[in-house]
Amino acid sequence: MQPFAQRLPLNGNGLNRRAIDVLQLNMGRHCNQACVHCHVEAGPTRKEMMSRETVDAVLAFLARTTIPTLDITGGAPELHADFDYLVESAVGLERHVMDRCNLTVIFEPGKHYLPEFFQRHRVELVCSLPCYTVEKVDQQRGKGTFDLSIRALQLFNELGYGQPGSELILNLVYNPVGPHLPPPQEQLEQDYKRILNERFGIEFNHLYCLSNMPITRYAMHLKLRGAYDRYVELLSANFNAATLDQVMCRNLISVGWDGSIYDCDFNQMLNLALTDGAGKRLHISSLTLEQVAHRAITMGDHCYACTAGAGSSCGGALVS
Predict the structure, then answer these.
(1) Which domain holds residue 212?
(2) Distance of CA 311 to CAs 61, 235, 238, 259, 303, Å?
(3) Residue 117 forms part of a structural domain
(4) DSSP string, 109-155
(5) Which 3 state secondary structure label does DSSP give 49?
(6) In a 3-state reduction of DSSP, which class is residue 262?
(7) What counts of helices (H) and strands (E) characterise the chain?
(8) 176 closest CA partner among 128, 142, 144, 223
(9) With contact defined as beta carbons under 8 Å apart, do 316 and 306 qualify?
(10) CA pair distance 86, 52, nearest whole angstrom
């Protein structure tokens, strides 16, 4: 397989970040699910969680900048003790807040208030639903996950999320159950909307198609089944240079649970932290925009997953 950097135009001179529109924050690896595809390797037994000091450092950094969007992820970020504080504070700074929600978390003990909390703060929801059938969802995310996910979506709809004319945004996320590329996003979105509405009366705004990243837990899952090499070659063979202009790392920085700074959440899980000129890790507590804006992005062969076919990012497909 040809190294990813050699596939880039201009003799592999790399990619540079543009203006930063999104601060993506991983609050930790604790989650009520343990999905086979999870590149974070999140689960109920994980203890890594962001400290209150680091949460405050994130908010202080936001206050020093004009970055318009805070994108919160995990694990299940809603299980963090300071999740509500973070959301309320960011909204107080007049920032748009996105929450990457696995849907079932709202049924965890003490979390029943979350739908109304999201509604009150106009939080944009990006919710995982890897298929519209019970078999495939439960296969990837655990038995009973599909039924709980449908109940959650119906609750969000009742509060106005995803409804025509509503400002409450509800987006869904699809990722393949097996080692293959996602189908065309526009067509699959139409199928999702038709089937979920016909069967369950569910409305939503957009569907984001993501490719599974062959790192950490999912890499092990593939290797145990003898499918790793085939999947990596599939990603490489479908490299699409047209996606390079839209990859998420060009307008985003990622903050780890310990406050370290990365080009993206995937680099975060591979421990590819950004450093200063002396090789010291950049940290959100002392970060300036000048340290990361227009900086060359750290790449690796895992970047094929974001640039194969129609491309993949936290906002779904990159090209038609």
Answers:
(1) 17-218+245-299
(2) 30, 10, 10, 28, 10
(3) yes
(4) TT-TTHHHHHHHTTPEEEEE---SSHHHHHHHH-TTHHHHHHHHHHH
(5) strand
(6) strand
(7) 11, 8
(8) 128
(9) no
(10) 9
Rounded-to-integer distance, Cα 239 and Cα 244, Å: 10
Residue 204 resides in a domain: yes
The two three-digit tokens of residue 152, written as one number? 């959650």
Residue 266 burial (CB < 10 Å; 0-12/13-18/19+)? buried
Based on the structure, what is the number of domains in the chain? 1
> How far is 120 from 251, CA to CA, in rounded Å?
28
Tens digits of residue pLDDT in 197-244: 999 999 999 999 999 999 998 999 899 999 999 999 999 999 999 999
* CA distances to 15, 18, 79 from 307, in Å: 13, 18, 32
Residue 94 has pLDDT above 50, yes or no: yes
Q: Per the domain annotation, does 4 fall within a domain?
A: no
Segment 150-160, tens digit of pLDDT? 999 999 999 99
14 touches 7 (CB < 8 A)? no
Q: Which of 172, 70, 150 is nearest to 106 (CA)?
A: 150
Confirm whether 235 is domain-assigned. Answer: no
Pairing of strands 207-209, 252-255: unpaired
d(CA 39, CA 247): 18
Q: Which tokens go with 70? A: 């805070």
Report the CATH number at residue 42: 3.20.20.70
